[in-house]
Structure formats: C-alpha cells, structure tokens
Amino acid sequence: MAKKIRTTARLLAALTAVAMLGACAPGQVEGQGSGAAPSAVKSVDPAEFAGKTLNYVYFTDGPDAQATAQLISKFEEKYKVKVNLETLPYKDLVTSVHARLSGGNAPDVVRLTGLTDFRDDLLDLRGYLGEDYAKAFLPGPVVGATGKDGKMLAVPSDLTLNGPFVNLDMFKKAGVSLPDPEKPWTWEQMIDAATKVQKATGSQYAFAMDKSGHRLSTVLNQYGTALVANGKSALDAEKAKKALTPLIDMMSDNRMPRDFWLGSGSRYSGANEIFLAQDAPVYLSGNWQVGQFAKNAKFEWAAAPNPCADNCGGFPGGKYMAALQQSKNPALAAEFIRFMNRTENQETFIKAGGFLPTRKDLTEKGVAYPARQADMNVFLKDLARTPDLGYAANSDPAFVGSATELVNAVSDVVGGKKDLSTAVSDLQKKTQSLVEELH
Amino acid sequence: MAAVQAASRLRQPKAPLKMRLVPYLFLLPNMAIFGLFTVWPAINGFNISMYSSSNGRTFRWEGAGNYQRILTDEDFWGIVRNTVVYALSFVLLSVVLGVMLAVLVDQQRRGRTFFRSVFFVPVLISPVVAGLVWNWMLERQNGLINTFLGSFGIPEVPWLVDNALAMVVVIGVGTWMQVGFYMLILLAGLQSIDPSVYEAAKIDGASRWRQFISLTFPLLQPSILVVVVLATIHGFQAFDFIYTLTGGGPVGATTLIVQYIYENGFVSPIRYGVASAGSVLLFCAIFALTIVNWMIGRKREAA
C-alpha cells in the first residue's frame, strides 16, 4: 500500500513538474516585441566596410552559382570585405536559417523564394537603399518583396515564369502546326494539338506537367482565378473547375501521366524527364528549364507561348535577396544587395542562370542571353501578358500552403477519392483557413 | 525470520556518504547526456505543443488548441488508421517471419553466419536509399519487378498507385528492412534454450512440430516480447523509407503519423506547435502499447 502511495506521489510530482514547465513559454511570447527596430542609416561611407565579413546564405539552381561567386569577388575587391558564401540545399534553407536565428548566429543576407517564413525577421531596406529604390524594379515582383506598411523587406533578384515547351521533332513528324508567338493557343487548341501529335507519333502521353501547386496556379490564373490574393481567399469555384477539368480528363485517359501524379505522394515531382525522354510532346514547366534542355535534349524543342483562356501569360515566381534584422552589419548587407542587383550585375546573373530580369531598365533594354535567345524571348513576351493577379497570389503568405492543398485536391480527384466539385469546395475551405492562420 | 533480517539490517553500519555517492557518479555522465538530449527535448516538446510558433522563437499560447486541431482534423484520423494498419501488420509479419528465419538459420549446420549476414544486410542500408531503390524497382512502367512479371505475360501491376497495393508494398519493404534485426534477437533466444529439453522431447517421441509448439515457442516468449515491443515502436515511427518510396501516396494512402508530424514541422507553412502535439500523441500511444505488451509478457511469465 505504502509503495503504491509512493509511486502515485512520484507520478503526480513528475506531472506537476511537466505542467509547470508547460506554463513557461519555450521562447519569446508573441506581442512582447522582437528587439529594437533597426535605426535608419542615412548614408554610410563605403570605406567603413573595409575589413568586415558578410555571411550570405544561398541556394543554387545550378548555372547561377559561378556567376554569383564572380560577382562576390568583385564586391569583395571593391569594398575590401570578405563574403562567406554558404550554399545550402534548398529544402534545408528555411529550417537552417530559423535554427541560426534561434542560436543568435544569423546570416547577414539570405536568398529566398518567398518571404512568408521570415517576414518578421527581415530588415526594412528603405533606410539603407532609399524610399525610391524599389521604383527601379518591375511592380509585379516588388509586390512580393513588400511588407506591411510598405516596408521593403527584400529585393527581387530574378524572375521566373511558367510556360510550355514543345518537342519540335514530334510536331514536325505529326504535321501539326505550332502557335504563332503573337497569337497564342487557347487551352483547347493546345490540348487538341498535343493529342494529335501523340496519336501521330505514338508517344506515351500528350501532355506533361510538373506536380506542383505553383504550376497548377498557372492554369487557374489563365482561367481568371487564384488561390489567394491580397490577403484573401480568392478561389472562384466555377473558374477553378473549368481550369482543372482538362487536366483531370487528360489524367483519366492517361494522355497526361496519372502514375506520375499519384506515385509521389505529397512530394514535388518534376516531369522534365518525361519530356526529355520524348514521352510527351508538350510540357508545362518554366523558363528555368531552358538551360537544362539546351544541354540535355537530344531533339529539337522550343518554348511556346502560354495558352490563353480568360487571361494569357504565365504564372510568376522568382527569388529575393533579403537582409536579416539580426545582421551584425546591416548597412553592409544592404549595400551587398544593392551591388548584386545593379543593372550590369543582375544582367550577368540572369544570363548565367537563364532567369528573367526584375529591373525595369533591363526589361526595356532587353537581355542578350548566351544561348536560346528565341525561347527566352517567348517568356519575356509572356511576361508582358501576365496579369497582376499572379503576382498578388504568389506573394501571399498563404500561397505556399494553399498550393500544397491544390495539389492534394487534384490528387483526390485523380485518385477517385472525391469528385471535382467536392474537392474544389474543400480546397476553398482549406485556403480560407490558411488565410486566417497566416494573416 | 523477517524480524531477524530487519534487525540485522539495522545493525549494519551505514556506508560513508562518499561511498554511497560512487554509483551515482558513475551513472552521471550517461544520465547527463540522456537528460540533455532525450529528457529535456521531450519535456520541451510537450511544452511547445501548447503554443503555436512558425519560427521556433516567438510563441503564442494555445493551451489544448493544437491537440483539438489535430483531433478534429479528418485527415488525421485517416492517417491514424493507416498507421495502425501498418504497425499491426508490421509487428505480425516481423514476429512470424523473424521466428521462421531464426529457426531456419539455427538449423543450418553450414553457412549459418552467411545466412545471418544475408538477412541482416537490409538493416544496414539507409532507409532513404532503400525507399528510392524499391520505388525504382516497383515503377509500373519499366520497373524491374513489372518487367520480370511481364516476361511471364503478367500485366503491369500498379504497385505504387493503387491505395491497397501501395500499403502492401510499404508493409513489405518495412518488414524486409527490419526482419533481419529481429531474427538476430530471436536467434540469440533460440540458442539460449537448453538442448537437453529437445533431447528429452525426442526420447518422448515428440515430432518436430510438437517440439516447436510445446518447447521452442514457449521458451522463446521473452525474446518474442522484446521483438513485439521493438517492432511496435518501429512500426509507429516508420517514415523515412516511406517518404522516398511513395511520398505517403497515392492520395495519402500510405501517409503515417510521423510524416504528418514532419510536414507540420518542416514544410511551409511551418507549425511547430502542431508538430509537437502530434509527437506527444504518438509518444503516448507508443508508451501505452509498450506498457500493455510488458504487462501481458509479465503475466505470461508469472503463469
């Protein structure tokens, strides 16, 4: 009996200790403030930077790494500073930078695909670069770099645009004509052409697309709707159903690879290998594939203009350079961002990486890419057709989570778990809930 | 008698404090590491489960909110169902195949070490690599297994895109990866059985099957209990190879609870509180099952 009482008492003591620990916040409680706001620096003498060290956390898309290293050398030489370039795998970037922020070992500058995970940690660059600095950039990408109250939390360093590629050899063999760059296909025309080529050439599929909510958003955008925009759930159920129906139909008769979509679960999966193996004559991806295809494709191919429905144009993406509030050298971090995004330096970078420019002057002047100029021009032309809705959607804090839910919704329909109406209605609820959670 | 023992205990001189501290000092380094890297993170995980945080630095009090969110999430209950199906099948197959392999290897006069190594090799393979290799082998088109089956005129089997088949594949690969380890535990148990009991049974005319049922199986029960406990823990914690094999698909059919925790903790939008609450629930489930297993085992041993 006494033993039982002792055991119970010990158990209760342990539970009380754990419960008391639960009453202590594991970190800073929200609303208590996250340190002093950075004091605005009007101007800094570049000579003051000499001898300082800057840590730049970077992820690479491949060919851009060498250009970045070259630009960093130029920066180091000009300012007599040392830049530590820390290249991380993309999937580890967010958790790694979070861990470093928690440990008080924050990098000074970080390359990001979106600001959602770091919005409260980023330095307002207006104090260092000036209120008008953002005007040098295209308004669309600037939306994604702007925080509450107009804070400039990052600089858009490169731009990507989703769009289709076509296998010219297969189209030629099938005798199917390509779209006029000035007069893009409609979605019906594109599917019709792809199906004709499939039948004529005996290819396994007619159409392939990366398994990605970002790529699916291209189709939503073309049909005049988006998952989220301007802090609100923006999905129009009827337009979404109209947009997704052709894809689901193609997966039901395997004109679009059904196994590819279902076989990778919740993971992203790129369909570039399907296109490279000539198993599909049309592939919806984006301009970052140009360099890879130029190197690896054993057939003639070309970028095609995005198909039109209610809208034309593609869906934008891109990367940002941001400085962290915890940076020990905020002025140097801001100067580094400015340097890397000067007209001539951004041009070097985007040429190497096969990206699109974010600077207005580069867009107006045009960029001479080292190869595949005609294909890059297709994307540049589509950039002008891309509606603002895409930029608003892509920069919304709830976009990434909603895009994952969009992939899940399509998988549910393709896998026979739900019908399209139910899947879209559930998607609207989940998107709404994400907006409430993240705004 | 008890009174005499108590009196003799009372008469024993108390060891000096230094001497009484010695065992604890020997234990201290190990306990410090255990406390720092296991107990403290576990308590902190429980603590975080009552807050919401997207960056691990700023926290908002949620109380039981994260638990409520998980327990009212329809997807979560589907994931629980998948986890239970996987864990139960995995435990059952691990025990049955583990015992069978252990008995077969034990009976080998030649090459016992070779067979032991062969069945143990999958344990040494990285689960991520194992998942990728099986994914490649089980692809519907051009996969090694379907190509092999095709040579016998068998049509392509949708191993990874049919809900039920994908679960069967995941259970099979999970068992293949771990059964060698359980076989070694059971083999050690078999080898600790006194051979004279088998000799006595043979003299009594017991068949091999009777010997297995009446001698081997009951005497192996302590080892089987260890395997059941370890397999239950492994079964509920399965994630890495499934993530590279099926990604939890098709349509979430092979998504287990650790993937749910991982995706809340490390995939945008990051929700450390929900991930921690999921971990606490998983801990409670594994802890409760381990206690039940242990109690059943103790009862059997006592009987």
SSE layout and pairings?
The complex is a heterodimer of chains A (439) and B (303).
Chain A: H1 2-22, E1 28-29, E2 53-58, H2 64-79, E3 82-87, H3 90-102, E4 109-112, H4 126-129, H5 139-145, E5 155-167, H6 168-174, H7 187-201, E6 207-209, H8 213-222, E7 228-229, E8 232-233, H9 237-252, H10 258-262, H11 272-276, E9 282-286, H12 289-296, E10 301-303, E11 316-323, H13 330-340, H14 343-353, H15 360-365, H16 373-385, H17 388-394, H18 399-414, H19 420-438
Parallel strand pairs in A: 2-3, 2-4, 6-9
Antiparallel strand pairs in A: 4-11, 5-9, 5-10, 5-11, 7-8
Helix pairs in contact in A: 2-14, 5-17, 6-7, 8-9, 8-18, 9-19, 18-19
Chain B: H1 2-11, H2 17-48, E1 51-52, E2 58-61, H3 65-71, H4 74-107, H5 112-124, H6 127-137, H7 144-150, H8 163-191, H9 195-203, H10 208-219, H11 221-237, H12 240-245, H13 257-266, H14 272-302
Antiparallel strand pairs in B: 1-2
Structure description:
- The complex is a heterodimer of chains A (439) and B (303).
- Chain A is an alpha/beta fold and 439 residues long.
- Chain A has 2 domains: 46-160 and 318-383, Periplasmic binding protein-like II (D-Maltodextrin-Binding Protein, domain 2, 3-Layer(aba) Sandwich), CATH 3.40.190; 161-316 and 389-438, D-Maltodextrin-Binding Protein, domain 2 (3-Layer(aba) Sandwich).
- Chain A contains 19 helices and 11 strands.
- Chain A is globular.
- The mean pLDDT of chain B is 90.
- Chain B starts with a helix and ends with a helix.
- Chain B has a two-stranded antiparallel ribbon.
- Chain B is mostly helical.
- Classes of the chains: A alpha/beta (439), B mainly alpha (303).
- At the A-B interface, helix 1, strand 1, helix 3, helix 10 and helix 18 of A face helix 2, strand 2 and helix 13 of B.
- Strand 1 (28-29) of chain A pairs parallel with strand 2 (58-61) of chain B.
Task: Please describe the biggest sheet of chain A, giving its number of strands, its sense, and whether it closes into a barrel.
Answer: 8 strands, mixed
Could you say what the CATH architecture of the largest domain in chain A is?
3-Layer(aba) Sandwich
Please, what is the average pLDDT of chain B?
90
Supply the CATH superfamily name of the largest domain in chain A.
Answer: Periplasmic binding protein-like II
**Count, helices of chain B:** 14
**Count of runs of 4 or more consecutive helical residues of chain A:** 19
Judging from the principal axes of the Cα atoms, what is the shape of chain A?
globular
- The number of domains of chain A is 2
Order of helical and strand elements of chain A: HEEHEHEHHEHHEHEEHHHEHEEHHHHHHH
In CATH terms, what is the architecture of chain B?
Answer: Orthogonal Bundle
* Annotated CATH topology of chain B: MetI-like fold
